[in-house]
Design goal:
The longest helix has 34 residues. The chain starts with a strand and ends with a helix. It is an all-alpha fold and 251 residues long. The protein has a three-stranded antiparallel sheet. Helix 7 crosses helix 8, helix 9 crosses helix 13 and helix 11 packs antiparallel against helix 13.
């Protein structure tokens, strides 16, 4: 007999509410597998997988109309989940480092000691890719970018991070929905991405250099290096970003 769950059971499993599940049904993104003679809704294993994708997309900040578009596209379920997994693993690594850094600070304070500065900011450090920047564009490029970052106020840093994370989420969402790289939406993201890169001092994009070569070189790096690709939903997302950026310059 096929396993199934009532709406109350599914709500408990997923950590949500029956009201939310009914709303997902009303907007057409999570229909029950069947409705009993008593009017109760029942969900099967496919429903659970679909709900998992819905909740993951919600974590990315995607709205319900956009989620409906994602689910309506003929994208392999395993491929889509693999993209979500890569993003989650990247976030897990970053947050684990932050947790360890804060725990180390608490431990030192409880012992009446001064926290080790080297350990306090792990997971918060914008310099984690210093080697890549220095190797590719020189120590001066890194120094100028570093000076710019350290000169920002806390509020300005938060705004810049928010802009960066919002752009990364938008890329991951677009990749998950399977939109074509040449589509107006993808090309709008490409233009935003180039504008974002040209706003970072010390880079060829900001110094009047060969912006096209710089941007497309980074795009190749997103695909080649999983640490960078994870920002855009993993390998599938990185490939999508590269294709859209190439189209941006070659159209």
């Amino acid at each position: 007999m096929t396993a199934e769950w009532s709406i109350q059971q599914l709500a408990r499993l997923a950590g949500t509410t029956s009201r939310a599940l009914r709303h997902y049904g009303e907007v057409g993104i999570l229909a029950p597998a069947r409705v009993g003679a008593n009017g109760y809704r029942y969900y099967d294993a496919a429903s659970l997988r679909r709900l998992q994708r819905i909740l993951l997309l919600r974590e990315l900040g995607v709205g319900l109309p956009q989620i409906a578009d994602v689910l309506a596209r003929d994208v392999d379920e395993t491929t889509a989940l693999a993209s979500h997994l890569a993003w989650l693993q990247s976030e897990q690594h970053r947050i684990s480092r932050q947790i360890a850094a804060v725990a180390s600070t608490i431990d030192a304070l409880e012992k009446g000691e001064e926290p080790m500065p080297q350990a306090m900011f792990d997971g918060f450090d914008h310099t984690e890719h210093e080697r890549e920047v220095t190797d590719r564009w020189g120590a001066d490029a890194y120094a100028r970018g570093d000076a710019w970052w350290r000169g920002l106020s806390g509020e300005d840093r938060a705004q810049w991070k928010g802009r960066s994370e919002g752009l990364a989420r938008a890329w991951a969402d677009a990749a998950a929905r399977g939109i074509p790289p040449e589509s107006p939406e993808a090309q709008d993201l490409a233009a935003r991405h180039v504008a974002w890169l040209t706003g970072i001092p010390g880079t060829p994009a900001a110094d009047g250099g060969d912006v096209r070569a710089y941007v497309l070189g980074l795009a190749d790096m997103y695909v080649a290096d999983g640490r960078f690709g994870a920002n855009y939903g993993g390998p599938v997302g990185a490939e999508f970003v590269r294709a859209a950026l190439r189209r941006h310059y070659d159209a």
